[in-house]
Design the sequence.
């Protein structure tokens, strides 16, 4: 035998209907919010990454790498901007623009190669503007290496040339 509550012909009060509707709406909202992807703060990457790079391997360089390579610059009034890397196994091809304290470009695209925590100058300007060892002498990596050329082009993309 089944038991019924109250009079089956009796209607629910309006406040119960409103409350039931709000509970369903809140439940749907909660489910949608739980399924949505969390927001990602990519303001740093967006500030560094151009609309397109000439090589898909190019990525923005970490600031710690920029600072590390910049520590080898020979003139105290210079810094690096547009830091870009191509990772290839244990080698990191790092390209950047050398600027003075006023933001004036001293050299549009220079490339260094980093291996096991040691930087090596690859391009002519990188060799003349920093005290890092020569990549061609130490690693056998020439300025004509396709990876050196690719990261240099990506730096030029960032600089807007």
Sequence:
């Amino acid at each position: 035998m089944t038991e019924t509550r109250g009079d089956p012909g009796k209607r629910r009060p309006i406040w119960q209907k409103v409350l039931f509707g709000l509970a369903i709406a809140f439940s749907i909202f909660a489910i949608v919010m739980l399924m949505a992807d969390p927001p990602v703060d990519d303001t740093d990457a967006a500030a560094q990454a151009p609309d397109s790079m000439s090589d898909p391997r190019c990525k923005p360089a970490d600031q710690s790498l920029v600072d590390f390579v910049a520590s080898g610059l020979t003139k105290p009034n210079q810094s690096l901007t547009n830091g870009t890397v191509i990772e290839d196994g244990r080698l990191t091809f790092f390209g950047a623009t050398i600027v003075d304290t006023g933001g004036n470009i001293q050299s549009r695209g220079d490339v260094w190669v980093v291996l096991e925590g040691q930087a090596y100058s690859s391009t002519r300007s990188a060799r003349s503007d920093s005290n890092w060892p020569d990549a061609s002498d130490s690693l056998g990596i020439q300025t004509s290496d396709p990876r050196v050329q690719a990261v240099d082009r990506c730096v030029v993309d960032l600089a807007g040339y």
About this structure: The first strand starts at residue 59 and ends at 60.
